[in-house]
Amino acid sequence: MISGAPASGKGTQCEMLVEKYGLVHISTGDLLRAEVSSGTEIGIKVKEFMENGILVPDEIVTDIVKSRILKPDVKERGWLLDGYPRTAAQAQSLERLGIRPDICVVLDVPDQILVDRCVGRRLDPVTRKIYHVEYDPPESEEVNARLIIRNDDTVEKVTARLETYKQNAEVIFSAYMDVFNKIDGNQPKEMVFGEIDSLLQQVQLVAKQRQKLI
Ligand code: AP5
C-alpha cells in the first residue's frame, strides 16, 4: 500500500514496482480519471469533485476498489494500492473485506516541493507514464508533443488537496501502524525505489521462511 501527499511520487514508484514485481496496480486516481474520460455514470458523478481537488464520496471509491481488488488476477499477482484508503471509512471497508497490506509506505516530501512537482507534472496519454518538465522530462520530442496536464494540477487545487491529505493522514497511519514505513520521498526516484524495494524483499524473505515451516 502506498500513501503520501499529492505529487509525493506514488504513481512514479508504482510504475517501477509493477515493472519489477508484476503486482496489479490499483490507483483510485487513475480508475476515477478513466471513468471521467469514458463519460460513464460514475465519471459524470465524480468529475466535479476531482476537478476541484475534493475527495470523491467514500461509497463510490470503495465500490470501484472492491470490484477491482476481488478479481482473479489480483489473487494471482498480488496488489499495490495507490491512493486508497484516504479516510477512516475507506480503511474500515478494507478491514471488513479482510484486506491488510504487508507494507504501508508513506512518501514524505516537503510542501513546497509538492507544489513544484504538481505544476510541472505531465502525463503521456498513450503509455500513461508520468513525467516532469524539469525533474523527469520525456525521452523524445514525439512524446513531448503529446503530453497532457491534469486539470487538478494548479497551485490552488494542489494546496486544497494537500490540506485534505493532512486532515486524513493520521487516521490512515494509525490504521496500519504495525506495517507503517515512512520514506523520504525527496530524493531521486531510484533511491526512493531502492528503499521500498528492500522492504518488499524482506517481506518476501519472511513469507518464504514461513512456507518452509509449514
Ligand atoms: P490521485 O490521482 O490519487 O492524486 P494524488 O493523491 O493527489 O496524487 P498524485 O497522482 O497527484 O501524485 P503522486 O503521488 O502519484 O505523484 P506522481 O508520481 O504523479 O487522486 C486525484 C483525485 O481523485 C483526488 O483529488 C480525489 O478527487 C480523487 N480520489 C482519488 N483517490 C481517492 C480516494 N481514495 N477517495 C476519495 N477520492 C479519491 O509524481 C508527481 C510529479 O513529481 C511527477 O511530475 C513526477 O515526475 C515527479 N516526481 C515523482 N517522484 C519524484 C522524485 N523522487 N524526484 C523528483 N520528481 C519526482
Provide the spatial order of strands within the biggest beta sheet.
1-4-7
Instruction: Kindly report how far apart the N and C termini lie.
Output: 27 Å
Uncertain residue ranges? none
Backbone CA Rg: 17 Å
* Helix/strand order, N-terminal first: EHEHHHHEHEHEEHHEH
Could you tell me the mean pLDDT?
95
Residues in helix, %: 55-70%
Major beta sheet, specifics? 3 strands, parallel
Broad shape: globular
Query: What is the structural class?
Result: alpha/beta
Task: Identify the bound ligands.
Answer: BIS(adenosine)-5'-pentaphosphate
**Total strand count, please?**
7
Strand content: 5-15%
Number of helices: 10
Description of the structure:
- Helix 1 packs across helix 10, helix 2 packs across helix 3 and helix 4 runs parallel beside helix 6.
- The chain has a 3-stranded parallel beta sheet with strand order 1-4-7, sandwiched between helices. A two-stranded parallel ribbon has the order 2-3.
- The mean pLDDT is 95.
- It is 57% helix and 13% strand.
- The longest helix has 25 residues.
- It is of the alpha/beta class and 214 residues long.
- A hairpin with a 6-residue loop joins strand 5 and strand 6.
- The radius of gyration is 17 Å and the shape is globular.
- The protein binds BIS(adenosine)-5'-pentaphosphate.
- BIS(adenosine)-5'-pentaphosphate binds next to helix 1, helix 2, helix 3, helix 7 and strand 6.
